[in-house]
Amino acid sequence: AWLQTVQDKMDAARAEVEQLIAAVDMVRLQLQQEQLSQYDDVRQQAAKLTPASEPPAAFQTNWLWLIDPPSDGYSAPKLTEVLPEFLLSDAAKAFMVRNNVTYYNWSTTDVIKWSMNMSISRKLMDHSTQVVTGFNSDSEALPFKALWDDDVEESAVGGDGLDATAVAYPDLAAHASHTNALQPDWVPWLGDARVYTPGRGWFYPWLGCRCSWPCTQLCWWQMMSCGLYQYVAIAWSVTTIAFELTVLDAIVVDDFIAKVPDRIVSWSDYANLNKSIASRVATLFVYFIFPWFVVGFLWAKSSTAFGNLHAYYNGLYQSRILMRSMAARGESNNYAYCTTVFWAILIELHTVIIPAYLPFLAPAIILQHYEAYLIEISKVYLIFQFILQFNEYGLYFVEFLFCLPPDMIAETTSFWAGPRAAREWYSVEYVYLWVMAVTILALIVLSKWHLSMLLLWFIPLNVLIYAVANHAIPYCMHGQGVCPPSTGPGIELMGIATSIGFVLGYFFCKGCFLFPCLCAPEVPGWLFFPPFDPPSNPIRDNLDYNSFLIMWSKITAGFPEVHDCMWEVPSTG
């Protein structure tokens, strides 16, 4: 009896456990159904995007990538990333639209960002292939016919399938066709009007051509499908950055190095100038107030929580975050690895080297050309405006060169950024602007004291500061997770190597003006510590080439010992 009682209790407990397991299974099934329902809601919302955020009809296809990973686009960017809208999936776009308070969307006017995502990803290539072949598309392949849609044309001309010319001139109707074969054409007799007249003129069945539209379309889409635009975009980006860097370096050489150690108005001279007190005070204000105007100009009303998305330095650093975000995707870890590493070199030049020249630019122009001429200050603004808009003009040329339609321009220039990414470029902007303001003020004060070649050290010093900030701030703000897998070390090391390589090249090309006594007597020591009323620079003509030859001769000779550094200006008597 006792054993039977125990057996009954065990059976009852087993039944309760089975009921509990069934209840757990029921709850799990309900959760799965809810998750599937939420997923369906996302897909439905992606299919019902608002007109303002809906992709153009040209891109509303079910993307089938011809390479891994097989998906319809990227997922939404992480909080620390920036991604182009063109590469996002429909579900990701719907998610971004619903969370547009957290994420930030803007349209760029920067050729660097456009070229980067287009050259790393081949989504536009795949889309172009689909248009040409009709593969995985709701429409047929691009027709090898003179007209796109036969039905529309037939209804427009009366249903006979002939174009307006054939309807107007029945004699030609029998010879007209929709194919891209040679088309009939009528040529009037000499002296006749150029209006078709039956029975007059000559009829040539081979003279006409109706193939310009499909040939243009096929050539354009085939150019896109073979990736020719990627090579052109990279080449144009290299040209733009090289042009910008060359212009800045030329300004430093022609407007500063060539002028050292010419006499300029020093601080003590302002007390004895034969000018009104108001003019002298206004000139001093130019030197000490203008740098802050430059900072305000570059800050460009950055007053929102995300900072001004179109400010110059914000645009620079957005390119850096975009490269980091693209490096974390599958393409950069596969066939586009070398392209991504190459972009690391360009982005280092774009965000570190070129900004290092800008603080040197304003004092060089003001001191050497516009000394005490207040009306000329507007020319400095024009030079800054021109340099800062290089990339914008470059993008407009790309849009013209590739014949991009308006819908494709809007789709490929729209970007989404996470909130932490926005705070990152907002923080780095402070580094850029404070370094610029301090450098400009230091150059103005020191140049009025001694216009020395040693001031050229500010350029490699700024390169060092910007390089440390650009490489360290992402890790300090977001931790180790911000480093892209696999590609991350490659782009970081290549960026650091680019900055180091530039500094070494800068020392090699301008070493004679950086190290006193290194190139004496050709480059005398008094250029570094000029007297009050010095003579002109002894190597003023063809300065950069001649200084390079002097440095090369010193290197090939093993830097022989210099017996006289010529610290004193030789007497002219």
Number of helices: 19
**Spatial strand sequence of the major β-sheet:** 1-5-2
Computed CA radius of gyration, to the nearest angstrom: 34 Å
Mean pLDDT rating: 75
What fraction of the residues are assigned to beta strands by DSSP?
Answer: under 5%
How far the N terminus sits from the C terminus, by CA atoms, comes to 135 Å
Largest sheet: 3 strands, antiparallel
SSE pattern, N- to C-terminal: HEHEHHHHHEEHHHHHHHHEHHHH
Based on Cα principal axes, name the global outline: extended
Class computed from helices, strands and strand pairing = mainly alpha
In helices, the fraction of residues equals: 55-70%
Instruction: Report the strand count.
Output: 5
Low-confidence stretches: 49-71, 145-169, 172-176, 302-307
Quick overview of this protein structure:
The protein has 19 helices and five strands.
Which characteristics define this entry?
two-stranded antiparallel sheet; 3-stranded antiparallel β-sheet
Write a structural description:
This protein has 573 residues and is mainly alpha-helical. It is built from 19 helices and 5 strands. A 3-stranded antiparallel β-sheet has the order 1-5-2. Strands 3-4 form a two-stranded antiparallel sheet. Helix 3 packs parallel to helix 11 and helix 12 packs across helix 17. It is extended, with a radius of gyration of 34 Å. It starts with a helix and ends in a 17-residue tail after the last helix. The relative contact order is 0.11. About 10% of the residues have low confidence.
